[in-house]
Here is the input.
Amino acid sequence: MTMTRRAALGLLPGLAAGQAADPQLFLQAIGSDVSAARKALDSLAPQWRDSYTIILLELTRLFVRDRPGDSADPSSAASMARKRIFEFLGLRTKKRFGDDVKAWTRWAWSLPYEPHPEYAQLKGFAYSKIDSRMAEFFPQGVRSNIRLDQVEWGGVRVNGIPPLVNPRTIPASEARYLKDSNIVFGIEAGGEARAYPKRILAWHEMARDRIGGVDLAVVYCTLCGTVIPYRTEVDGVRFTFGTSGLLFESSKLMFDEETKSLWSTLQGKPVIGKLVGDNLQLTFEPVVTTTWGEWKADHPSTTVLSLETGHDRDYSEGAAYREYFGTGELMFQVSKMDRRLENKDEIVAIRLQGKTPLAIAAKFLRKRPEFTIEHEGVTVTVKTSKGGSNIVMAGGKRIPAHRAFWFGWFSQFPESRVIQ
Here is the structure.
């Protein structure tokens, strides 16, 4: 970290350490003042707890950066700072992970969750140096029902991936930019049909829209391969959702403008902030992943997003996240994985109230146009079209369902029953 960057980081004001290590020590330990950094580590040593590992890892990832051309220079300030941190961690924990950040992170996440009492505020302070608005997500005493040490920065600022707000739509006959083979996410609400082309939505990851008189946040977690159209009103309260720039288990965390609470994309529930504990659950509408040709044939009166979004993006098919979608590798770590399916195998995610979540491999369903299974006393039927869309019926009624990458779904719902 350069002196300029260190000065920008500053010190965290107003924290009382109590029986825990002084939070200022963690900030000093990653600073560019070598003498102060060594003194901070010396002070941390006798107070060390293994749960502090993730704090040093997180601050190092965020702020100990190479200058252009320095990445291969072991004598650069950043390289020396990282070496100092990893050697300290090795001495304190007796673990021999060297400079393997992923290995350190896996080990830290395997520990019982015993965070520093000021961890949330420290996290918010650090992230505020990326975007001052992020501090609002982690106020002092913030409530959380997930592990804060598994919340990571996704590489963008708040709404740095800009949501589409009341996007312009056109009738199917005017959508000459789309080929029949292009992938779309099709939604029906209030008797109205609308298609959201993957090539557009992948650049924005959210559309705040109104379909058939229903206000929706169409949320696309590109990393976990999931599109879910949530109703934005719950218990008579309407929320305005945005993209926080943060992730949990490589899954998008959205936030509401009204309370600055963070919400799980996959669960549709607040997980950090004022709303935690209020038993809020967003209702989601059915969505199908299919081809444009099939969707417009089945829904001739459909509307579809226009290319005139107000943003300058390459909306050609496959341009967004091409490399990520083309490999099984993950961009961010998750704490748990399951090898029954490949990381990015698509599953149809089915949730029935009071039942174990059900995940059915999309490739399994492609070979079975109609598949029926008994699941905890409920008859579930999935109808799969030639274009790949899946309609799910339970107890004779259509229920909301959506696609997801297996790794993302399993990280949030490891208890799921899997059909492959």
